[in-house]
């Protein structure tokens, strides 16, 4: 009898635990949804008053999130939902975006652009590492900054850190500054359109080469136009796919770094190629084969757009501008210098390839 009762209670306990976990994410998700609603409302006011949303809901959500986070630090009950919105919902949004993009566009971009993306990532890693070391940063910290800058920000830092045996404080400092600088890039990159005389196509390539995270590419390109969004996302995905080879490369280099010690572990397949990227590619493949009709692609694209705004709200809530005062001046200078260098390399690539 006792065994039977225990076996019956176990599923109930598991269900109760799941329900508690789901409930714990609710306050944070509701906070992100509230910010999303305000952002959407402000965009609607722009459209009604000006005829065009000069600042999209995506960007508005980031700014509101940052303002809220700076004025008020959400308590522990909000954090699980904010983290869920910033990661899981964000990844779902990117995966669903694949339904609106044909992989034929990658082929149309040509082998020269793909080769240029690979060369840009490798050159940015080498140059960023050199800048960091010249400023006196430790070798592992320099690698984290270089990979985060050249590939995909926090994801690259998190993937590379275990294989090089990076210390927690170095990882935290690199991620903290990347979070702030990543938002600044999203907000400031469109200013280069008039300054550098960029076309929609050129700007898409630039955004894909320089913006840290895939969803942030959306925030940086959606206000510019559909072509920029599609090109930027595709370029960014090729850049993200460089993460696997780079992690493997540094796993081989790690034993030869100064003060080498055993790595904390080796990343699995989902670290080398994140699951949401595989989902994006799967949907894009189905779309390219004509297996995702317009009647299905349209609502999926709308859901992706909504989830992206919610994720941007969560991203803003995770950024405290005061973190700049807590990171070292050398780290600030190294990351900023690396980003400027990446922008310069990317612009040179655009000109060299004659992208119109």
UniProtKB/TrEMBL annotation:
Compositional bias (Basic and acidic residues): 1-12
Subcellular compartments: Cell membrane
Residues annotated as transmembrane: 26-45, 51-68, 113-131, 143-165, 171-193, 205-226, 238-257, 269-290, 296-319, 331-353
Region (Disordered): 1-20
Topological category with respect to the lipid bilayer: Multi-pass membrane protein
Keywords attached to this entry: Cell membrane, Membrane, Transmembrane, Transmembrane helix
Stated family: Belongs to the UPF0324 family.
Family annotation (PANTHER family): INNER MEMBRANE PROTEIN YEIH-RELATED, UPF0324 INNER MEMBRANE PROTEIN YEIH
Protein name from the UniProt record: Sulfate exporter family transporter
